Amino acid sequence: MNAEPHASLPTVAADASDWRWQLQHAVRTTDELAARLCLTEAELAGARAAEAAGLPLLVTPYYLGLIEASDPACPIRRQVVPHADEARTVPGDLVDPLGEQAHEVAPDLIRRYPDRALLFVTDRCAVYCRFCTRSRLVGAGGGARSEERLAGAFAYLESHSEVRDVIVSGGDPLAMSTERVLAVVARLRRIPSIETIRLATRVPVVLPQRITEELLSALRPHHPLWVMTHFNHPRELTEASRAALRRLADAGFPVMNHSVLLRGINDDAATLATLFRGLVRERARPYYLLQADPVRGSSHLRTPLDTGIRLMGELQGRLSGIALPKLIVDTPGGFGKVPVGPDYVLARDGKMTRFRSPHGVEVEYWDP
Predict the structure, then answer these.
(1) Please, what is the end-to-end C-alpha distance for the chain in angstroms?
(2) More confident call, 274 vs 53
């Protein structure tokens, strides 16, 4: 199940600032990783297991450069370096935690809500995150989906006009060539009932060189296009990634961020506050703080649900509303996202409700 080099990429310049160079020179093997980082025995075992049969190893040189080479607790490292704990299973672990296979209405098209659908266009990413919800699929060798393979999905969307919002995902659609991304977006735009197209991508985080004027110019005529990205830690907000966010915003792409709550990576209020403020500074809206999905092999990175609820309580009133995401549990089996958070209602009695404010003050509200 090892990841193959990305296909259909144009000629690659010998320049680390070129996104195609970054993909071509990504670390894919245990030996390559061990040559760059001081791996622990648990990391070595995890990397060897991943290389043999698990979720593949893939890290761009850019993102690898954010890792502390000798610190196993580095928050960037823990997201992408395999660990022996990936072989451990715990109660509640699922191969397909969001029930996507059960909700597949056409090849590579998932529909879990009345008005929106998720379209898989590739199984490749620029980096493979160790907590990936779709670890069963990514890097499996198929690469970008052909027009023929996606024909059934487009036919379904054309015949179901109630679907107004399509999330283009995978894998990472922006890890494909501009030509392929444009072909998918243009095809969706020919379906009159589709109002909004979202590009689900971690490229601004792990491969910001990809956000080129060529890409933006190609996609801009097909607005409204939303970018749903995936920053998890303030260290990911480098000058390069900030510049990528600015380029997206300047080109008219609203940017929304999903952060996954991860043990030992971002499970404290100060880290999250710094991340969310940094995103807002670059006109990217913190949208969801996601309880990590119970995908098999990721239990060592998941937090108790109470941790997220406590953190949201600490952040409420401390951050501007535009910097405060919703804490979300994507329920197992594909039955939808549920917002959770602290309970600020202390009592109800007729028309009187007693609240606890974020400042700890009890306040009575009389319902008119």
Answers:
(1) 62
(2) 274
> Quick one: CA dihedral 170, 174, 179, 181, positive or negative?
positive
Task: Tell me which of 129, 210, 242, 267 is the catalytic residue.
Answer: 129
In the annotation, is 337 catalytic? yes
- CA-based torsion, 243, 249, 252, 253: positive or negative: positive
**Which one of 123, 172, 267, 330 is the catalytic residue?**
330
74 is catalytic: no
| Among the listed residues 324, 328, 350, the one whose alpha carbon sits nearest the alpha carbon of residue 338 | 328
> Is 134 assigned a catalytic role?
yes
| Residue 357 domain flag | no
Question: Is 79 a member of any domain?
Answer: no
Determine, yes or no, domain membership for 247.
yes
Whether 48 is in a domain gets the answer: no
Task: Indicate the pTM of the whole model.
Answer: 0.93
Task: For the chain, list the strands marked E by DSSP.
Answer: 104-106, 109-110, 116-120, 165-169, 196-200, 225-229, 255-261, 284-291, 326-330, 337-340, 345-349, 352-356, 362-366
* Triad 315, 283, 268: Cα angle to 5°: 25
In 3D space, the residue among 128, 121, 88 whose CA is nearest the CA of residue 294 turns out to be: 88
pLDDT of 172 strictly over 70: yes
116 has catalytic annotation: yes
Tell me if residue 38 is catalytic.
Answer: no
Label residue 8 by pLDDT band (50, 70, 90).
very low
Known active-site residue 115: no
> What percent of the chain has a predicted confidence (pLDDT) above 70?
96
For residue 128, give the nearest of 308, 3, 287 by alpha carbon. 3
Token pair 């997206």: residue? 248
Question: Which residues span the domain enclosing 125?
Answer: 86-343
The question of whether 113 is a catalytic residue gets the answer yes
Give catalytic status of residue 125 as yes or no: yes
pLDDT in tens, 329-345: 999 999 999 999 999 99
Out of 31-40, 138-147, 192-201, 225-234, which region has the weakest mean confidence (pLDDT)?
138-147
CATH number for the domain harbouring residue 146: 3.20.20.70
Tokens coding 20: 């195609």
Number of domains within the chain: 1
Q: Which of the residues 85, 93, 116, 156 is marked catalytic? A: 116
pLDDT tens-digit readout, 215-257: 999 999 999 999 999 999 999 999 999 999 999 999 999 999 9
- The one catalytic residue among 20, 112, 124, 198: 112
